[in-house]
Design brief:
Elements: H1 5-8, H2 62-69, H3 78-101, H4 103-106, H5 118-123, H6 129-143, E1 148-150, E2 153-155, H7 165-190, H8 193-204, H9 219-238, H10 244-262, H11 270-275, H12 286-295, H13 306-311, H14 318-326, E3 338-343, H15 375-389, E4 393-400, E5 403-410, H16 423-440, E6 444-447, H17 454-457, H18 461-466, E7 473-475, H19 478-486, E8 495-499, H20 504-515, E9 519-523, H21 527-535, E10 545-548, E11 559-562, H22 568-571, E12 579-582, E13 596-597, E14 602-604, E15 609-610, E16 623-625, H23 626-637, H24 652-661, E17 665-666, H25 690-693
Helix pairs in contact: 2-3, 3-6, 3-10, 6-9, 7-9, 7-10, 12-14, 19-20, 19-23, 19-24
Length: about 700
């Protein structure tokens, strides 16, 4: 028996390929291509025949839909029942995905501490191919004129009664006998060096499994499994016990047990195995199969550990791990070092939560047109969160080196932050979360996006004022956001036009640039707010700050720093070749093809980041908003101050240097539009930024 378990986790690599023009052919139009083949040496019939179709593979369900819709179904209503089973299989998988990734439900009894990565999500993207395969195989057998003839009578696989009670017992016994036995020895054979390298290593590349991981196998493996799993269905038919209910019971029951073995949290009650010790040989647990993925050469059974016991492959640690996991000891719980608090954007963004959509959340958020049919469902989900959750909740967990990190979410969409009547409710959510995190022993609490809106809570200052004894540090992270914006402004810039200039970020950027000799024209209707900015500027540089109330004055500037929304008409004021350096949410619509629009200030995470299996809204993979990175830098540096309220311009360079020291990399902008054949630099990096030049 080959025992190369130590090689398994290094065999797969995520393939990340940005594409300007479009998607990868998946249903979500992702710019990421599927991961490379995960097997060591992919063998014959490794890929499913419809793999080239990508997301278009779902057209394979259309013939069945047509048969049902056109009233062409047979006397068994075969197409109708098969489609019902298909739908229920997807619903069941989605339910268990929600449960397994919902930390409030499954977080305390985790089996494995390691975290899922993007590579695994991509590798298991086609987990549902077996549903299509089994649908067509079962239908092909059903359509045969006959399976056998005896004494002049031919018997076909059709004309099933709806239910046959005795047949369901026969189904169970046939599965427990031939199917479990054959699977056990087939599974052991797949762990032989040749078959493992060609096929089964694909599945074992997932050290930490998720509910659908049990279905992520190459085509050849699924052919073998389908043949074996057909034995109970054909055997029950052969002894006269077949029924339509048999197909529902076996296909859905099989999926359920397969999911249980891969869900990575323990939920079987301890009293069951203490009261009925023999049960541990009749039904496996999530921890039992988890050992197979971590130790590779033990616990080969399908669902019944009795076969491992008889075959001498039962891992002696199986029951110790089960009891530890069931009691919450397998993965010890401790407070995270840092928390970042986000919130929803539009209504449909609820589907981007990691526990609601595995594939969609693993790609930068963008609502596709077809998704708007789900808008009523999204509203219902948000209402349910408001009623049944009614507080900030954990969306995901990550690691950065030795730091334990979590992302929490305020149950509110962006538009709610702009209604003053909602401010009290939203602030109560945030304050309750801050107090809770402080009691847990969290070190840093980062406020993302509108959670630190100036009008809402003074950039987080309200919470520090109301809770003066906080041991934890509250951080809006905008010092690093300001640094990120400034690093994109070329070193030879002499003047800038600033919109949103008296906001927290606009003020800091204006003061930073003014001190470095840049003439800053601030667009604001409030002389009082402008005067406050000027008052904070050193006397010798006050002349570099100029106020205007006219957007038309921006026509003489080719560098705009934008902190508020600009209409199409306002953008037309900018001269040809203007660079819009933006920190506005949402980002500006790119209506000027002759101008450059910077990306949202963001950072790529250091190499030691782990467990980032979902994208932070519109950010790319392993990228976070600059304010999130700012909270992480605050934690890594061990700074003992709250970063709330106004930004201190004198800390901008300090914060930038700390981020660079810890391996955070500023996410590069898309290429500048080539204007008049000119070779404009993609970002300020080639010529150096103004901030670096003056640093």
């Amino acid at each position: 028996m080959w025992k190369g378990a130590d090689r398994v986790s290094n065999w797969v690599k995520a393939l990340r390929t940005p594409s300007k023009g479009g998607g990868s052919g998946t249903i979500f139009g992702s710019k990421y291509l599927p991961a490379q083949k995960a097997a060591v040496k992919p063998g014959f019939l490794y890929e499913f025949p419809w793999e080239p179709l990508g997301g278009a593979k779902y057209v394979l369900f259309l013939p069945f839909l047509y048969i049902v819709a056109a009233g062409l179904d047979d006397s068994d209503n075969w197409a109708f029942h098969m489609l019902c089973i298909v739908a229920l299989r997807y619903i069941q998988a989605q339910f268990w995905h929600f449960v397994s990734r919902n930390h409030a439900i499954s977080g305390k009894t985790r089996v494995q501490a390691r975290l899922v990565e993007f590579a695994q999500v991509d590798r298991e993207e086609n987990w549902d191919d077996y549903i299509i395969l089994q649908l067509y195989v079962a239908t092909a057998v059903h359509m045969l004129p006959f399976l056998y003839c005896y004494q002049g009578t031919c018997h076909s696989y059709r004309d099933f009664p709806l239910v046959h009670g005795k047949g369901l017992l026969q189904l169970l016994l046939i599965h427990a006998g031939p199917t479990e036995l054959i699977y056990y020895w087939l599974h052991r054979a797949l762990h032989g060096h040749a078959l493992y390298a060609k096929y089964h290593s694909h599945h074992h590349a997932s050290f930490v499994t998720e509910p659908i991981s049990g279905s992520a196998h190459p085509f050849m493996e699924h052919l073998l499994y389908t043949a074996n799993f057909a034995i109970p269905l054909l055997g029950t038919w052969a002894v006269g016990g077949a029924s339509i209910a048999m197909f529902y019971a076996y296909m859905l029951g099989f999926d359920l047990l397969n999911i249980i073995g891969h869900c990575n949290f323990e939920f079987f009650p301890v009293w069951l195995f203490k009261a009925l010790p023999f049960m541990k040989y009749l039904i496996y647990t999530p921890s039992f199969h988890s050992l197979h993925h971590s130790r590779v050469h033990t616990n080969f059974c399908l669902f019944m550990p009795i076969y491992d016991y008889l075959g001498g492959t039962l891992d002696p640690k199986s029951w110790d791990l089960y009891f530890n996991a069931a009691e919450g000891k397998a993965v010890p719980q401790r407070a995270p070092d840092a928390i970042f608090l986000g919130h929803g954007t539009e209504v449909l963004s609820v589907f981007h939560l990691p526990f609601l959509s595995r594939s969609f959340s693993a790609k930068p958020y963008k609502a596709q047109p077809w998704m708007y049919v789900l808008w009523p469902m999204a509203v219902q989900l948000l209402v349910a969160m408001r009623i049944f959750v009614g507080k900030v909740f954990v969306a995901d967990k990550h690691r950065l080196g030795k730091l334990e990190l979590q992302t929490w979410v305020t149950p509110a969409c962006a538009i709610e932050f702009f209604f003053k009547g909602q401010w009290s409710r939203i602030n109560s959510y945030i304050e309750d979360a801050i107090v809770k995190a402080d009691k847990q022993g969290v070190k840093v609490f980062g406020l993302g996006a509108l959670n630190k809106n100036e009008a809402l809570n003074g950039g987080g200052a309200l919470f520090v004022q109301k809770n003066p004894h906080l041991k934890m540090r509250v951080v809006h992270g905008n010092t690093l956001t300001a640094a990120a914006v400034l690093r994109k402004i070329p070193a030879d810039t002499k003047s800038v036009f600033i919109l949103g200039a008296t906001s927290k970020l606009g003020r800091a950027i204006s003061l930073y640039l003014a001190v470095r000799g840049v003439k800053c024209t601030l667009l604001t209707l409030s002389k009082e707010r402008f005067d406050k900015v000027v008052d904070d500027c050193p006397k010798q540089f006050k002349g570099n700050l100029v106020r205007t109330e006219k957007i038309s004055d921006g026509a003489s500037f080719d560098t705009w720093v934008v902190g508020r929304f600009l209409s199409n008409k306002e953008q037309e004021v900018a001269p040809r070749g203007t660079a819009f350096h933006q920190f506005v949410v949402p980002m500006l619509p790119e209506v000027r093809s002759d101008c450059f629009y910077s990306n949202m200030p963001a950072f790529k995470l250091p190499a030691e980041a782990q467990g980032f299996k979902s994208c932070e809204m519109t950010m790319g993979r392993s990228e976070v908003h600059a304010c999130h990175a700012g909270a992480l830098v605050h934690t890594l540096e061990g700074w003992d101050h709250h970063e709330v309220g106004p930004i201190d311009p004198e800390r901008i360079d300090l914060t930038w240097n700390a981020a660079r020291k810890h391996g955070f990399e500023l996410v590069a902008d898309e290429e500048w539009v080539q204007v008049n054949g000119g070779g404009m630099s993609p970002t300020a990096s080639s010529a150096g930024s103004l901030a670096e030049h003056n640093n």
